[in-house]
Specification:
The chain is an all-alpha fold. The protein has helices at residues 9-15, 20-28, 48-64, 70-79, 87-113, 124-138, 144-166, 171-185, 199-215, 218-221, 229-236, 239-264, 274-292, 298-332, and strands at residues 7-8, 36-37, 44-46. The chain has 3 domains: 3-68, Multidrug-efflux Transporter Regulator, Chain: A, Domain 2; 120-221, no CATH class; 229-332, no CATH class. Strands 1-3-2 form a 3-stranded antiparallel sheet. α11 (229-236) packs across α13 and α12 crosses α13 (274-292).
């Protein structure tokens, strides 16, 4: 340290509006080195390198706003390319972000469905009743002649999804529940028909297959943090693998943001708020870690993700041009005159 150019610690903290408690937290988290004694004074001070480091930390903190959290600051610094950040802090903040999202999603789902039981304790009749409420709400404006069919379809899908979210049942249980749901939800006359071509039997086979597919992702779909593998994967993934995937993530986020903005010029898409983009980015990172951090090939996956990000703009631009061409062509066609 250059002792000749030390700034007293108290003076540096006051200049940035930082308390001693917050300073100690930064030091404990290894985001900045400890202050060193100023020779001949007995006070602690910061050298030029530490002053510059503290300035960058505080600039990042101000850009975040809100309550000061060391892990949140560490996450944002790492996102901006600071490779000196301890990986465990970044992982801890990702887990905290996912936990908040899960909590918000659970409350929203409870409000929408009326299901307020603890995860794993819901009964089939409760989920059936919730599925019925969802179906009634979503099909309210469907034309009357097709409303009953639409309601049965939505009700069954809602039942399968809510089972995955609240119970996370196994594959066979999912298929069994779907079949039982059909029997309880509607009184199909040909349910016990002998013919294998009966429409309801075809529907049963189709929905059973769907249930099996859904059950493959049941643990990911559940909002129960104790059972969802996302949290365990984030904790267990080696630091080097996590860093490789994390470094490829911001570029992919930007690619998706550009893609959304490009499509919004051709389609009536809503403009995403900063909070919505942050939610999407967080979920994207968690999914990347879950599915690309399962093996020792994280580096290869990271390269693939970076290559994919580079291709997003080209692909989306091509799709958008076709959409624009279709819209323009439709405008050129003569309007049909009613008979």
């Amino acid at each position: 340290m250059d002792f000749a150019h030390q700034v007293p610690l108290g003076q540096a903290l006051t200049a940035h509006g930082l308390t001693r408690k917050s300073w100690d937290a930064l030091v404990e988290a290894r985001l900045i080195d400890r202050a060193e004694p100023i020779e001949g004074t007995g006070a602690d001070g910061l050298g030029a390198r530490q002053i510059d480091r503290l300035r960058r930390l505080m600039e990042c903190r101000r850009s975040l706003g809100g309550r000061f959290r060391v892990s949140t600051l560490a996450f944002e610094l790492a996102r901006n390319g600071d490779h000196s950040i301890p990986v465990e802090l970044v992982k801890a903040d990702l887990i905290a972000r996912m936990a908040r999202l899960f909590s918000l999603a659970k409350r929203a789902l409870e409000g929408y469905t009326g299901l307020t039981t603890r995860f794993g304790t819901a009964k089939s009749r409760d989920i059936l009743a919730a599925a019925d409420r969802v179906a009634v709400t979503l099909t309210e404006h469907v034309p009357s002649e097709s409303r009953a069919t639409a309601r049965e379809t939505v009700r069954t899908i809602a039942f399968v999804v809510l089972n995955a979210v609240f119970l996370g049942d196994a594959a066979r249980a999912q298929s069994h529940r779907v079949r039982e749901a059909l029997r309880e939800l509607a009184d199909f006359e040909d349910l016990e028909a002998d013919t294998q071509d009966a429409p309801v039997r075809q529907l049963l086979r189709l929905l059973s297959a769907l249930a099996d597919r859904l059950s493959n992702i049941r643990d990911v779909a559940t909002l129960d943090q104790r059972r969802n593998p996302i949290f365990r994967r984030i904790e267990a993934i080696p630091d080097t693998d996590f860093s490789a995937l994390f470094d490829s993530w911001p570029e992919l986020c930007e690619a998706f943001a550009r893609a959304w903005a490009r499509l919004a010029r051709s389609l009536p898409l809503v403009e995403l708020s900063a909070a919505q983009r942050e939610t999407f980015d967080t979920l994207l990172l968690a999914i990347i870690v879950l599915y690309c951090g399962a093996s020792n090939e994280a580096e290869s996956y990271a390269e693939l993700l970076r290559a994919s990000a580079a291709k997003v703009d080209e692909s989306v631009d091509s799709v958008a041009r076709w959409i624009e061409f279709g819209v323009a062509a439709r405008r050129l066609l003569p309007e049909r005159v009613p008979a």
